[in-house]
From TrEMBL, chain A:
UniProt entry tagged with the keyword Zinc: no
InterPro entries for the chain: CO_DH_flav_C, CO_DH_flav_C_dom_sf, Diverse_Substr_Oxidored, FAD-bd_PCMH, FAD-bd_PCMH-like_sf, FAD-bd_PCMH_sub1, FAD-bd_PCMH_sub2, Mopterin_DH_FAD-bd
Pfam families: FAD_binding_5
Domain of life where this protein originates: Bacteria
KW Membrane (keyword) present: no
Name of the featured protein: Carbon-monoxide dehydrogenase medium subunit
Source organism of this protein record: Cereibacter johrii
Keywords from the UniProt entry: FAD, Flavoprotein, Oxidoreductase
Domain FAD-binding PCMH-type: 1-167
From TrEMBL, chain B:
InterPro entries: Ald_Oxase/Xan_DH_a/b, Ald_Oxase/Xan_DH_a/b_sf, Ald_Oxase/xanthine_DH-like, AldOxase/xan_DH_MoCoBD1, AldOxase/xan_DH_MoCoBD2, AldOxase/xan_DH_Mopterin-bd_sf
The keyword Oxidoreductase belongs to this UniProt entry's keyword annotation: yes
Source domain of life: Bacteria
Native source species: Cereibacter johrii
SUPFAM superfamilies assigned: CO dehydrogenase molybdoprotein N-domain-like, Molybdenum cofactor-binding domain
Coiled coil segments of this chain: none
Keywords linked to the UniProt accession: Molybdenum, Oxidoreductase
The protein's name: Xanthine dehydrogenase molybdenum binding subunit apoprotein
Keyword set includes Membrane: no
Chain ranges of the Aldehyde oxidase/xanthine dehydrogenase a/b hammerhead domain: 21-139
UniProtKB/TrEMBL annotation, chain C:
The name this protein goes by in its record: Carbon-monoxide dehydrogenase small subunit
Record's keyword terms, sorted: 2Fe-2S, Iron, Iron-sulfur, Metal-binding, Oxidoreductase
SUPFAM superfamilies listed in its UniProt record: 2Fe-2S ferredoxin-like, CO dehydrogenase ISP C-domain like
Pfam families attached to this UniProt entry: Fer2, Fer2_2
Domain of life: Bacteria
Domain 2Fe-2S ferredoxin-type: residue ranges: 1-77
The keyword Chloroplast is annotated on this UniProt entry: no
Source species: Cereibacter johrii
Gene3D superfamilies: 3.10.20.30, [2Fe-2S]-binding domain
Amino acid sequence: MHNFDLVKPSSVAEAVAALGSEGAQALSGGQTLLPSMKQRLAAPERLVSLTDIAEMKGVCRGEEGLVVGAATPHGVVAREAKAHYPALAWLAGEIGDPSVRARGTIGGSLANNDPAACYPAAALASGATIVTDRREIAAGDFFQGLFTTALEEGEIVTSVRFPLPERAAYMKFAQPASRFALVGVFVAQFADGVRVAVTGAGEDGVFRWTEAEGALSADFRPEAVEGLSLSAEGLLGDLHGTPAYRAHLVKVLTKRAVAAA
Amino acid sequence: MPKDGGIGASTLRREDIRFLTGKGRYTADISLRGQAHACFLRSEVAHGRIRSIDTSAAEEMPGVLAVLTGEDFTEVGGNPTGWLVQSRNGATMKEPKRPVLAHGKVRHVGDAYAMVVAETYEQAKDACEAIEADIEELPAIVDMAQAVADSSNRVHDEIEDNVVFDWGWIEENRAAVDAAFETAPHVTTLELVNNRLSPNAMEPRASIGDFDSGTGDYKLYTTSQNPHLTRLLISAFVMGIPENKLTVIAPDVGGGFGSKIYHYGEEAAVLAASKRLNRPVKWVCDRSEAFLSDAHGRDHVTKIQLATDREGNFLALRTETLANMGAYLSNFATCTPTFLHGTLMAGPYRTPLVYVNVKAVLTNTVPVDAYRGAGRPEATYSLERVIDKAADELGIDPWEIRRRNFIDPGAFPYTTPVGLVYDTGNYHATMDKLRELSDVAGFEARAEESRQRGKLRGFGLSTWIEACGIAPSNLVGVLGCRVGLYDAATIRVNATGNISVLVGAHSHGQGHETVFAQLIAEKLGVDANSVEIVHGDTSKIPFGMGTYGSRSLAVCGSAMMKAADKIIDKGKKIAAHMLEAAEGDIEFTDGSFSVAGTDRQKSFAEIAFSAYVPHNYPLETLEPGLEETAFYDPANFTYPAGAYGCEVEVDPETGGVDIVRFTCADDFGNVINPMIVQGQVHGGVAQGIGQALLEGVVYNEDGQLLTGSYMDYAMPRADDVPSFTVDHSCVTPCTHNPLGAKGCGEAGAIGTPPAVVNAVVDALRRAGHDHITHIDMPLTPSRVWTAMQG
Amino acid sequence: MKVTMTVNGRPMSAETEGRTLLSSFLREGLGLTGTHVGCDTTQCGACTVHVDGEPVKSCTVLAQDVAGKSVTTIEGMANKDGSLSVIQQAFQDHHGLQCGFCTPGMVMISAALLNEKPNPTEEEVRHYLKGNICRCTGYHNIVKAVMAAAGADSRKLAAE
């Protein structure tokens, strides 16, 4: 990779200041950024490591739900969210592999918004709030297409607040090579309705399957989505699956998630 | 009971200690004083004419020591192919030039056309980005059928139809085969693709060139399965360095599976750069580069037809195959789809008439060569798939149709209609053993239990045979091989009685350091711990042809036995002298030399000591020293065979396939170390499962590689495969080598793919998907689901 | 920039650039070449080491980012007297390695598993090891070795 300077701030304020310089980029767990830098697809001049910022770490049950520090690795979420939000914990525990989970973080995953990443589905289905150094962004506004988010230049995610659903489950069908989600469906039932978020399938990244949400809000059983079919239009197609296959999987996984919730 | 550390014992591997403690020494681990680092600039287009390469900016970059291009290698030769195959019209095949660095044209994405050497790797890589190459992009030739049809677009300008050869085997039989098809009561036809694979040894290739200007000696450390062959190619063909001025060292090598048999341009390039700079030059491939430059495997498109009578007796078989060569002919590329494929088309069956046609086609893709199994997996897959289809069409049980056509155990030696003579075998025995281990009776209950969980269970059977122990030089010479395929071993008994065995085979996972010591321990009656196996260094070892084609034990092991016989003969001479007896009266048993019928004896150690402290020797008749070399050239191939059974569960909602049982019953002849043999089968089976379900190299129509990393090329992982049941209790010892050994390294990769595909097709057809008769590998969830949609 | 960390129990230092990966720091900076690099996409796991007790892929961690931390590599896995540790011995006893290239990573990830879960099932072992690729063994004997190291009766795994 091209060379760069690494700085390691110990507070959010320091990190934001460091990110103000030309060519600076935030580095969280680095499990996506570093491989892409090795391929020389990214060449920041300065990397600002967020791994030593204590205030960005940890899982904490608050009044408005579960607050996960943005620099919390997946493995920690898998362990510590289990008692509060098992579906989220299970999702975190299925990302990558144990070594990737020891480094990769929720903030890094959300900020990257890979169309096949798992966390965006949890955030969108939970109606999570993405908290940054300067504002709060509803998940529905945060994800803005492939590898694109509402984050401004130099803005960093500091934590994510998950409202706790009554029931929820995540189903992931892994792409055989990368083990990212070929399709992942997160179903969450709240008092005011059901939210279904789909990752891995959309050309524009994570999206909500509103038709299923309506059906499941009326009747939270797998059978409720039986008659629905998701259009393959706007879905990803690649050597691992056609848009039609992905559309089909969305429905299968939605049913399975409802059954498991 | 085998003796501890002797033949038949599952002796633990001595090499494990260094690998388990981080003390293995792979090429990338070696740092020579003053070494510089190389990086190769590789083509981003599949096909292009090099108009100019401007290296001036790169040369000015920090740390850069040299920039080399194809121009720097116009004076040296190219990398040749090892086999000249004749077309069926008698014409010799066309052999395009393969330069060290691309010259004139780039012919595949990843074709290296420049090399930068710098103080650090990153500097070299930075400088590669500063090279300005003007390359006129030409239309990519990717699809084989199109390559053959369109002679206006050529991978090599001098080869007009992109066809290297059009091979018929055996051409004289063609008319008879066609006639049999005319009159056959039933003909089963299947068109299939044997998917292109990337070998993916976990250690990426690496090479260090080290020229000594004081002596003029070259040393090459490299990731090779056969250092002598690499030396021979570099010396005789590529660079003209005298063989005695070039040492090739293949230290610990992290797996090969075929991909490290071949000589690659990077090896010559680091040697040339080292000479130019008078410094060692090191290159370590990264995985992305490996996908673009390591020889790929398989990639056949085949139409196979089987003619039978109504009872399922095989009457004739014919195949037409397009075999992808890629952009250049790699060293074994031409023999893989021919003599390692066509000659196996009889399988373990009595089919009286067989004709095989193979066209070898050049495309703008990475060169294709032998990968674990090499040709034999392709043959076995075609055959075992068409047999299952025929059984289905004729309403005959898959076990029964095979049993009906097996070569009878009493029929050996058996001459096949495709030019081989099987020396021994018992295909009924291995299939019966498989049946016993597969719990066929319990299948319906298991299938029902799967149904309860919404899964479709299927069973797939395959049998396999291969010709390995490669190879009789006389035979391969007739077939166009440019080298001999013997192997060699030197046994050096040291004065203190311990033994160094210098072997031509190279160990890169096979456990030779342990197994070969077992052989010598048994043969010479010494403690295995006193035997050291030396391999992988051309300056230490007399000669050798390396490790591939399941040959190490059958060929190099036999050379060791021959050398050991010479040691015993010499020991007898020494003992006769020491014991004052006639040489003919000396017997050698359990490590001691004795005078027949007496208790007078000398231990092996005493004989060894005397050989090096030859006081009172009759020097006219007895030479001091105890060191012997033997070359062993096999009289025939060896023919291991077996039967594999696979049980799968298909998820009808997703198309996902789970392998729930996998059972192997193999006949490897005599086995030296069962633990290691079983490990070889496990690994081969996993690679076979990889081919069947997961792996496939995919190019788009522009010749861009879509599976260029583990993000898209699916390697079998721990949770993709089950534990396996493997059995090798059926033994028909090889009749023509001293060990009775046949070889086991490739078996799993050969027998597995058809068993898996047969199982998936069986599961789907049992569930009523009658329209499905075949799905091409890899059987990804997406492909299986799509097939189910009709 | 000079980076110091505790490697296999001893403080060790080497010069680094910002881009120096932990794997390069160990291999080139410290000469600990037991940690191998088998891919460039954080998939194969040959480079697995422990940082503060947790497994990481050292090819995807910056050396400067883990300065001051405690790192364990394959070179630090044997017993103090140099004999093989329980996990290493299990790999030898059950032929859990062939070419040896993925082996350091396999040993490190297996050790992490057994720290986290001393008595895993076969399925749990396979699941935990999925980020470490082996091309030689088909995983059969690796799984067996890990089970044996955990004290399980490995004969129950599959008939041979």
